[in-house]
Amino acid sequence: MTSSTRSTQPRRRSDATRAAILRAARERFAADGYERATIRAIAADAQIDPSMVMRYYGSKEGLFAAAAEFDLRLPDLTSVPPARLGEVLVKHFLARWEGDETLVALLRAASTNPGAAERMRGIFADQLTGAVATFGADPTLTARRAGLVASQILGLAFTRYIVRLPPMVDTTPDELVSWVAPTLQRYLTGTPPS
Amino acid sequence: MTSSTRSTQPRRRSDATRAAILRAARERFAADGYERATIRAIAADAQIDPSMVMRYYGSKEGLFAAAAEFDLRLPDLTSVPPARLGEVLVKHFLARWEGDETLVALLRAASTNPGAAERMRGIFADQLTGAVATFGADPTLTARRAGLVASQILGLAFTRYIVRLPPMVDTTPDELVSWVAPTLQRYLTGTPPS
DNA sequence: GTCTATAATTCGATAGAC
DNA sequence: GTCTATCGAATTATAGAC
Question: Which residues bind DNA (chains A, B) (predicted)?
């Protein structure tokens, strides 16, 4: 029962097609948002028939849910020098986004699609809050610290990838890290104001 | 030629209707985004016929352009104590938004509508950069400082009004000001990193 | 100025042949 | 598994009566 022929392998022709659909869907959702991205256009990009999209993913919502699966892949913050938490986080986020348009798709869709907004809340409320909680002292402040971090991180993504403000687009990732890291550092470990 | 009868007064029945349309349009665009907000729904809210919207504003794009007119109404920053610039700015933005949903409409639409994104760029690149330039020392840094401020300000609005992250929704404006003011202060007047 | 009627598209989704 | 054909609904926009 070592290997090749079949039986335990459900993957055949369809897996390549499914992957092509997801890739095209991410592109379109990222570029056009949820409403303007049509199943027909996605299917054309993937060079398959539109009805295949429905067959594989049931509906447009189902397709989006599959295409916008996103994991922040946050590193273990307990092994990071406490004074460098902000820097590590900004670097991580920028690197994570520059190579994967899934978050842009999610960001654009979250503006108009309730399901996408809900997923965004889940990602930043669960994954990020969880990471912040691993080292935070005061549990009652953890959620707020995570929310503030999310506000700066998502504002960075929004101005750089969605609105495309020229100064935010032209600035290199390293320069952005230098400016933004102290902000996150204070949100994460700073003394609560008054 | 003092007063009432007519001649120099083009406003008659239509002005109230136009205002009602704009109000309903801002509500719908803010709540649903550009694509999902339909002319029919806006007309129903304003209790007028859908064709009147077309007659007055020509097209859906034209209606949005009229409804999403937005002025930051930035105060004169030269009369603000330099050490309190961040605080004054956050306070101003929060107050400006809590009572006017136009920015939320613009924010939501900017994700999918190129024209709305262009307007957003104009607002933050012109109005904000102009205000920052009035006191900034190094002109080459002015655009970048304004962009960074925009990133935190728009991230605040995005997480609080669009995605509605619970910790950002539950926090009072005063508490938000306390946390965010130092960030803007550093973006505006801080020493450039390395 | 206001409304009815409808044109012209476009979309998501379905049925069914092969 | 894949594709053709099409349904039914919704949209912006227009033409024209009153």
Answer: 38-57
